[in-house]
Amino acid sequence: MWPTSEEWLHATDRQGRWVKTAPRSLLMAEIREYSRQHGEAPMALPVVHIILMTREGQLRLVQRGDKPENPYMWDKAVGGHVVWQDPALPLSAFEANVHKEMAEEIGLHKIEIAANPLDFIERLHGGGVDLQQQVLLRMIDYDPWQGVMVQVKAGQPWVKRLNVAVYAGFYEGPMQFVDGEAIATCSVDPHALRAALIENPWRYSDGLRVVIQRYLPLLLVGTQQERVAKQTGPVKRDNLERVYE
């Protein structure tokens, strides 16, 4: 029988349409087995990804804990599966789970999600958001079929498909590691990280590679790096070795 205490997820197809609903562990096992046999996932699971920056243009990473997936790798700030009653998974489902995951993983409760890019910029420059105490986000992408390669402690890597809403924004205050998903944090120059992902890919989750490849220009909107790049060209690489000391 399916365990009643476990999270139930709505799996979806390439277009984000409902396929089935089942406990998370059973869906993950089915997708993992299929992927290892066929090199592709048969369905996607709904998730939110939250990317945090500083106004200086530093990307805030967290180091994952001793987890079954991507253990001890550096990753984006927050991510998690979307748990929601309605299998249609409206936008409100993703936004509610942004608040849930931010609180559970890094202890943040004061979160503002802008309605659109103009609203985001107006809030950012309006002076009403204290980035030491509050998180300011906007949705930058929705992809019902985003693929990532999952590394595991034992066994072969496998392809996971995500029905993902991606949020990005600013926060400059402390993080509290609440549920063991993350154990450390650092801030890095995203341009330097792009090179490090090629040189030392085993240190990072594949999802972080996707973040840099797809969203780097969007992440720099509103940062000091955006203003510098417009005036002087690309930002120089930083030395990332301090992250691993």
From TrEMBL:
The keyword Hydrolase applies. InterPro entries: NUDIX_hydrolase-like_dom_sf, NUDIX_hydrolase_dom. This is NUDIX hydrolase. SUPFAM superfamilies: Nudix. Residues 43-210 form the Nudix hydrolase domain. The keyword NADP does not apply. It comes from the Bacteria. GO terms for molecular function: hydrolase activity. Keywords: Hydrolase.
